[in-house]
Amino acid sequence: MLIHPKARYKPYESAAGGWGSAKSVMEILWREQAFAKAPGALFKQNKPGGFACVSCAWAKPGKPHHLEFCENGAKATAWELTSLKTGPEFFMRHTVSELLQWTDYDLEQHGRLTHPLRYDRASDKYLETTWEEAYHDIGAQLRAMEPESVAFYASGRASLETSFMYQLFARAYGNNNLPDSSNMCHESTSVGLQESIGVPVGTVTLADFELTDCIFFFGQNVGSNSPRMLHPLQEARKRDVPIITFNPLRERGLERFVNPQSPVEMLGLESTVISTQYHQVAIGGDTAAVMGIAKALFEMDKAALVKGEPGVIDQAFIAEHTEGFTEFAAAVRSCEWDALELRAGLSRSAMEAAATVYARSERTMFVYGMGLTQHRHGVENVQMLVNLLLMRGNIGKPGAGICPVRGHSNVQGQRTVGITEDPKKIPVDKIEALFGFHVPEKKGLATVDACEGILNGSVRGFIGLGGNFLRAIPDTSRMEPAWQNLHLNVQIATKLNRTHLVTGEQSWLLPCLGRIEIDRQNDKVQAYSTEDSTGCIHGWWGNSEPVSEHIRAETSIIAGLALATLSGIERIDWEAWRGDYSQIRSAIATIYPEIFHDMETRMWEPGGFHRPVSAAERTWKTPSERAQFIAPKTLNEDPDVNPGPERRDVLQLMTLRSNDQFNTTVYGYEDRFRGISGTRSVIFMNRNDIVRLGFSAGDWVMITTAIEPEVTREVGPMQIVAYDIPEGCSAGYYPECNPLVPLWHHAERSKVPAAKSVPITLRKTLPSTEDLEHAVPDKDQIH
Ligand SMILES: Nc1nc2c(c(=O)[nH]1)N[C@H]1C(S)=C(S)[C@@H](COP(=O)(O)OP(=O)(O)OC[C@H]3O[C@@H](n4cnc5c(=O)[nH]c(N)nc54)[C@H](O)[C@@H]3O)O[C@H]1N2
Ligand SMILES: Nc1nc2c(c(=O)[nH]1)N[C@H]1C(S)=C(S)[C@@H](COP(=O)(O)OP(=O)(O)OC[C@H]3O[C@@H](n4cnc5c(=O)[nH]c(N)nc54)[C@H](O)[C@@H]3O)O[C@H]1N2
Ligand SMILES: [Mo]
User: Fold this and answer.
1) Distance, CA 72 to ligand 2 centroid (Å)?
2) 640 C-alpha to center of ligand 3: Å?
């Protein structure tokens, strides 16, 4: 058995948080050489007068803790405030072809971009340019191009002000091509909740966590991806609130937590048990599991009524507020326990145990993440959760509701201010009245559509407002060659990534201020705003000096590009906006008065202000003005990934995040909670599958997608790690595994790539020395 000496797998025994977390923060501050600026900045993170964390979208409390940040937020801060720089000299030393051989980690680790750059094909290098030249030349290219052939991508980090300007720029230019990271993330939520309860967002706020008496968790890894939520969860557990988790993996943050900010817990080795029930549902088994809980509820209800006791189904709420219950009840009745058990990978008793606790509670909330949305039936998954909540009237009352945990820190807000490919979702009349231009009627391109357009040549230009599109999308090995046919590739970014390096005919790299940096315009520090996962809008500003005097604010870059591209649209005063962001906010408030009236003052209220969420008030903005029970058409969440009982060699692969990354940004090679150290080239498998398929833990394998054999989709070599995961399921890291996800393998109704259920087969391999170096980087070099 060949195991590389530097890769280690050792089960992690400690709770989430704790000393491991503190140590990990210190390591990244050291590595980023960020001790000068970051510790001071951390005190201001998520505080009144401070900046909003650049990491996740979890809510910020009105009365923050002394240090209102988590391990991963601290890493994100250090990553942005690094004193390392990739300036023009760096690009003089390295050709683009050379940089293309680097890992994601190495590309970003070299530090912040400091100067505007233009790709020079003759020397195969990015060369320094001026902002004037960049705006002028990009504007000229855009003017010459067919507007419908250009896509305007937004990663979910840009502020409300920036996002509002950006969507106006695209629409004034002549399209609705506004793909965004949400298209790969919670679009299943936006589609599913809109149809079920008439709003595209969750109904739960932080205050509900204080009132709830039962929490369910589905497919969300709180310990790594929204660690600040561990505090309200810990508080809830102190009140003995049961937490019931459905996740194929036993995630440490969902098991136990030590608050790193509590000296008692840090010294006393006390930890809080988070989940009181942990159900290792099969990948794609949630619809069946929730159906099983619903079935158990119906049975309990019947039994109670027979005994003359009150039923457990809230008939009064259902009668007054909902529609479709009879059909839903019939669908539940038609499901047999055998089929539910098989699909969910859980026993009937497990589903009954969850139902029993649910039936006892008065105020339940359901929290969920990518484990639900990134499936072929991701939308139906979300709607199935709503069905179960509606059965007991758990939407629209304090302490209860639905809580999607969004990803990027302003991904929900971007939608609110118009980043969407669908012009029906924006107030076109108001925009046209205020700005005096015609908003194109044609629906634009979302992420999967934009990828298809790049593949078939209809998309020729791509502007990226942050993100790492070419790494985050599915089918990356097919997409990279097609991307090179782009005529224009413009990327507004803080750090170098692979999307910048796969160049088109014309490629530009425009460096921008990070969120933590002070943005001065007209000698005044400018404030920004964002909306978190609970629909709460906050004001904030940066408080560290910018890394370079040559970088510009995103708002300023968009204004520069718009001024150089558009003509005849006098009523958008880009110049005034880039100099005073309160004017942008005033325009936002004019377009969306119900949400943003008096924004300029309200955004500074402690804890921010909440946008109205009608479903939370039991006003249902659906066509029938009732909440909808929507029965799933099938229990099989991922129809194409079940190749049939004869294909026993096919496993389902979920692609997920380690504790040491933020999406495609890899901070390091330590997935502490999962016990992985020194590598990301692993595949987690059940022990029985390893033996059954003729492998041993530690073997190196190539992974191949098991559908559409005419297209080769392969990654590897990856090393097998025996792990506590249900039989037939496996897990690997995103973005390394993205070449395995076919572009068409997406949620049917939201087009979110089904990154959590890819059918795969494995083949043993012997890695070359070069493979090994890539898979298990030399830590001495990287630290
Ligand atoms: N530190 C850090 N924080 C982040 C991010 C990050 O990369 N790093 N990314 C941000 C972004 S953009 C997002 S969208 C969120 C993502 O945060 P999450 O929603 O937590 O996303 P993932 O880590 O992809 O996977 C979520 C969980 O789904 C489980 N899972 C997989 N398949 C299934 C299934 O079929 N059913 C169930 N029930 N569970 C399943 C996995 O075991 C995993 O625990 O986090 C945000 N916050
Ligand atoms: N297989 C698989 N694929 C997935 C997922 C999965 O779970 N599995 N998850 C999906 C999800 S949920 C998401 S949200 C997407 C994420 O997709 P993206 O949002 O496109 O990717 P990120 O990795 O977050 O982008 C990182 C880059 O953003 C830039 N950046 C960072 N901060 C700033 C800033 O302040 N301004 C600007 N302009 N640029 C900045 C940096 O250059 C950095 O390299 O990936 C999706 N892809
Ligand atoms: Mo996301």
Assistant:
1) 15
2) 24
